[in-house]
Amino acid sequence: MSPDSPPRSTDPLLDPARRPSPRAKTLWTVEIALTWLVLIAALVAWAVVDPDRRSWHVAVAVVVVPVAVLATIVVPRWRFRVHRWEVTDEAVYSRVGWLSLESRVAPISRVQTVDTERGPLERLLGLSTITVTTASSAGAVRIGLLDRALAEKTVAQLTEIAARHRGDAT
């Protein structure tokens, strides 16, 4: 663990110490809002194409609009509270989800590659996602939506730790 890392949690599988960047909430809000806007645009198109069903349009809008607003406000904040990650000399830990939670632990000795990815919205917000590929059938461990500088520092840290564990446990 690096000197500037937060103190170790007692059970990292349940509660790794670090969170994504606070800007992750902005990214999730934009993604969710865009998804709901597509549905709302379809509802508007339906109203234009089929004006004889005004009561149906209103009924659907009364359900969809509040759910869209609630999801856009609540889900990003909920995900931010749940998403956690941590890198130690022994393992990479992650916890993600909002309805269904997934916790992963990847022993350092099983790390094969460490990749960084930045989509268009991530680049705009200065965020990066780290993917740690291991010798596991469960797939890679993703540490999502870190500040770009922290992601680069974490990749360097993982590379250095993995180099010390040259024995392959695969």
Automatic annotation (TrEMBL):
Domain (YdbS-like PH) spans 81-157
Keywords recorded for this protein, A-Z: Membrane, Transmembrane, Transmembrane helix
Q: Which InterPro entries match?
A: YdbS-like_PH
Query: Where do the segments described as Disordered lie?
Result: 1-20
Residues that span the membrane, as ranges? 27-49, 55-75
Listed name of the protein: PH domain-containing protein
Organismal lineage: Bacteria, Bacillati, Actinomycetota, Actinomycetes, Mycobacteriales
